[in-house]
Amino acid sequence: MRGRRLSLFWAACAVAGALLVAFVVLPAASMIAGAGAGFLGEALRQGDIRRSLWLTVSAALIATAIAFVVGVPLAYLLARRDFVGKRAIEGIIDLPIVFPHTAAGIALLMVWGRDGIMGRLLAPFGISFTETVAGIVLAMLFVSLPFLVDTSRETFALVDERYEHVARTLGSSPGGAFLRVTFPQAWRGVLAGAVLMWGRGISEFGAVVILAYNPKVISVLTFELFEGFGLRAAQPPAVLIVIVAFVVFLVVRTVLLPRRGRSRKGSA
Amino acid sequence: MIGLRGVEVAAGAFSVGPLDLDVPAGEYAVLLGPSGAGKTLVLEALAGVRRVRAGRLFVDGADVTRLPAERRRVGLVFQDGLLFPHLSVAANVAYGFHRGNGERTGWLRRPSAERLAQLAEEVGITHLLKRRPQTLSGGERQRVALARALAARPRALLLDEPLSAVDVEAREELQEVLRSVCRREGLTVLHVTHDRAEAFALADTCALLVDGTLRQTGRPQDVLRWPADEAVARFLGARNVVRAVRDESDARLAHLATGVALRVADPLPAAAVDLVMRPEDVEVWPVGAAPPGAANRLRATVVRLVLQGGHVLVGAESPAPMEALVTARRAEDLGLRVGAAVELTVAPACVHSIPTT
User: Which residues contact B178 (CB under 8 A, 6 or more apart)?
Assistant: First the structure.
């Protein structure tokens, strides 16, 4: 009876999960199927789509790299230290998740635009954030950095701090202990956060379109093609970015992060 | 040597100290106390990974209170070994090698194979060097952790419950390794544990930490025989602690509240005392069979029998509730059973008195 109840429970979980997976797969699959055979080559032959794809992927990568440099130290600090205002900082980092993205774009424009405080400060150096790649990177960074910081913080918190204590007594400085002991145990989680952030970046539309309509990232190009030429014209860039994102996620999850399940049983 | 002078360490609302403790150079000291007494806090403060609120810490005569952990040259071994899981056993051991000692050479800072082999040999892990930490048993992990700590050539070694995650057979072997390696290297050791047997097997000196205060320091046999207070006595397994008052004309006679008097070897230190008797010092006899000259004879009824390995703990109702520890063979010979009437005797030299606080 107990076993039967258990199997019913797992069956219910599987059905619920299947519904959710179908909910995600159906739109993507119908979009790819609707585009017809040979659409990928056709899409890649179009220069504006190719340029837009490269711009989207590379701008999201730059945003992720910037977040890595400044976000990973912050994540480590939040995981290891208690200080006044820590909760407030965690809330601030998560703010972009609840910010409507068009509102985020407007807020960024007010600070980094031509008349914003940072925009005016950087203008003499020829740095502008409106209608530039820098603006796209800025918008992507703003909306997606919580994914890297939060995931990294959780991962660092899972690494027992006493490993660092041991490393310190063996002669490592705090930075040395982080680089030689903590990061090697946490890198998979940090990478997972970076991939999530990159994925969120390439899909960004609202903040990017306000700060930098041009040059067009794939989401803006798709919207423009849809507005100007209809559904059929918008399908190639949309399908292309879905496929690229799917392949990247698949490679990262199956090749780079295969030890996640096993590490739970291990010492870290 | 290791020295603590008025050291106070805090973790949240809990604090330890002020503590004063000296471990002479080359001595093996055990900081013994129940869980939650604050032992690990003391160790962390000495290692430099936790700040002290007050007081000063000394290692090898040098004041290390303000030194960062990496400059204290104090080795630390935790209960679960905490081997770095992303490194092989050899890389774990070599982690503490320094270029300055000639233990790392070349621009790649390759660890010295000779020193690695010597350390591995010393703690018996030569056959494990290529393994990953995840594949080791608890005892093997602790040996590797010990080798790793020794690799950094520490001036003192701190061990935080190093045997508690190890099975019984491996524990005895590891105790032997700890004792012999530390003696050979002339290391000053502070070993923290809640396990009395472990402490008495290893310690030159025992320090009792209860509720954040250092209650007593001394040789294991002295601490065991002459506990400083009731909490220490109970923690060390002296299960018989009874309150008594000194006889007005005979300072070696103590009266229990039930009217029974017990004779002690030394004059009682105060008018009101706690009498402490270890169960293994309480002898059990059939009624009337106790030696005629025996002092401190108590008629009792057996109320509980608990088998403990090769011994039986006998709970008895007498003028004071008492517990005696007899061999299983002796219990069988006496035909002990719950409800049986027996006679208990305790030699006056085995009755320790502590002034009532």
Answer: B146, B159, B162, B189, B191, B202
* Residue A10 covered by a domain: no
Are B251 and B116 contained in the same domain? Answer: no
Mutate to test the interface with A, among B57, B95, B131, B160 (most CBs of A within 10 A): B95
Domain boundary among B180, B213, B230: B230
Asked if B91 is an interface residue toward chain A (Cβ–Cβ < 8 A), one would say no
A160 — phi, psi (to 5°)?
-55, 125
Same domain, B244 and B149: no
Q: What is the mean pLDDT of residues A143-167?
A: 95
Average pLDDT of the residues of chain B: 88
CA pair distance B33, B166, nearest whole angstrom:
19
Segment (H or E) for B159: strand B156-160
Peptide bond into A124 cis (omega under 30): no
Q: Do A184 and B86 touch (CB under 8 A)?
A: yes
Measured between CB atoms, does B155 come within 8 Å of chain A? Answer: no
The answer to whether A58 contacts chain B (CB < 8 Å) is no
Amino acid at B103: E
Total domain count for chain A? 1
Say which CATH number the domain at A176 has.
Answer: 1.10.3720.10
Number of domains in chain B: 2
The ipTM of this complex is 0.82
A window 170-199, beta carbon within 8 A of B: 170-173, 176, 180-181, 184-185
Q: Residue B75's closest chain A neighbor by CA?
A: A169
The CATH number for B59's domain is 3.40.50.300
From chain B, the residues in CB contact with A184 under 8 A are: 84, 86
Residues B152, B25 share a domain: yes
A169 touching chain B per CB within 8 A = yes
Q: What is the DSSP secondary-structure string of B42-71?
A: HHHHHHTSS--SEEEEEETTEE-TTS-GGG
Lowest-pLDDT range of A3-7, A73-77, A258-262, B143-147: A258-262
- Which residue on chain A is closest to B157 by alpha carbon? A169
Q: What is the rounded end-to-end Cα distance, in angstroms, of chain A? A: 37
| Minimum distance, in Å, between the CA of residue A62 and any CA atom of chain B | 29
The pLDDT, as a whole number, for residue B184 is: 87
Which residues constitute the domain of residue A56? 37-263
pLDDT at A265: 39
**B308/B161 same-domain check:** no
